[in-house]
Amino acid sequence: MNTDLPPGPRTPRSLQTLRWIVRPTAYMEECRRRYGDSFTLEIANEGQWVFLTHPDAVKQVFTGDPRLLHAGEANVVLLPVLGTHSVLLLDDAAHMRQRKLMLPPFHGDRLRGYADTMREVTQEAIAAWPLGQPLGTRPLMQALTLEIIMRTVFGVQDEARKARLGAALSELLRWGSDPRRVALGLALGPQRSIRLGLFRSVLQPADDAIHEEIAAHREAGGLEDRDDVMSLLLQARHEDDNAPVRAEPGPSRTAGEPMSDQELRDELMTLLVAGHETTATGLAWALERLVRNPDALERLRDGDDDYADAVVKETLRLRSPISLVLRRLQEPMEIGGHELPAGVNVVPCIYLMHRRADVYPDPLAFRPERFLEGQGGTYTWIPFGGGVRRCLGASFAQLEMRIVLQELAERFELSAADRRPERMVRRAIISSPSREGEIVARARPAARSETSALAA
Ligand code: HEM
What we know:
Number of helices: 20
Strand content: 5-15%
Bound molecules: protoporphyrin IX containing FE
Distance between the termini: 79 Å
Strand order of the largest sheet: 1-2-8-5-3
Shape: globular
Number of strands: 12
Radius of gyration: 22 Å
Structural class: alpha+beta
Helix content: 40-55%
């Protein structure tokens, strides 16, 4: 088959990589303007990235055969931290087996069961926020989402162990979000990063703390009465799916087997890395947008859950923490009118899709109502990716964001510390607000009178 890649810049690979690392949003917009709905970038150690921004092409990828569109292989840069068993890094049958084990805690009643903890943690955390002065919300949200993950996912009850785990995990995440280290990791590639022990000094304390927690769970028993994700994963058993389990790459499995400690460690680390900073950044962006859109903030205060969900959706549309997802082609394939060769990465581009004026009229306006009017669909609202790789924590994250925002709107008057909007800047692979989502919070007169009524 004759293959043809979509057009793209002709500058050297190193320069394209640099522009991608330093100013990703400006570079993507420029490429779309110059080359159209599909374009190709050359990225160091990654090869060709074929960006797709048309809904039909994105649908083709999300509904395509996952055996030919490997996501795990394309995420391999995360291997040194997440480990070989991570659901994010596996493909084919090994991926589906691991994904099936991990789905139950993130759906239905199980998920709703976490709402009370989310609310409790939020109330405790925001009660300590200083009032009347500029606050960078991203780090505050990060502390909050970490606490929520430690309670709902890791199920840590002992305060000393929680402090140890929290410190080790925050240090690891802080270390890994330095752009210089991301650039170094990209330049070295995952195997060399592991060999050179690039992450060892920060990874070891986090690993020790996670293993300590797994051991504590096993020792304490009574797992069936607990509802944290770790307890559920400890009880989960691999299914007999008649797949030729030992004939393929990735961890081998026997039906009825529980997860090994190493598997558990890798999946817990995956949930932490995938779910922590993404949600915290989404929350900081929601506040950044809300304080500049007082009507939306006022309406959020009415307590209507549908409107609050729409606020979350509109935030994740206009300020999606992740700007793209990757799939590596295993065979040549026609996508978006191009015959793409095996080995390239196809890249459904969240950032550019969410700014299409034909899907979202007045795309740069923050208008949560658009989601109540039915805008956005499976292949056009894609902050959580799609298909068999769609984010496992999508419902968890949206529930958490709604609860935190409702609590904040209820308790505080919120305003911008500086009226200029914040720019999207890169923190590792996440698009963050340039001034950390800075706001000023003041006690609400209504909240004050409610408090005094309660006191009376
Ligand atoms: C606003 C918050 C979040 C955003 C924007 C987000 C976004 C994403 C994206 C874009 C992907 C890749 C999907 C694809 O390749 O098609 C993903 C995968 C994943 N996310 Fe999230 N995520 C968020 C929160 C969470 C949370 C809270 C958790 C868990 C506690 C989580 C766990 C995962 C896992 C395990 C995967 C891998 C799924 C697979 O490969 O099968 N995420 N997420």
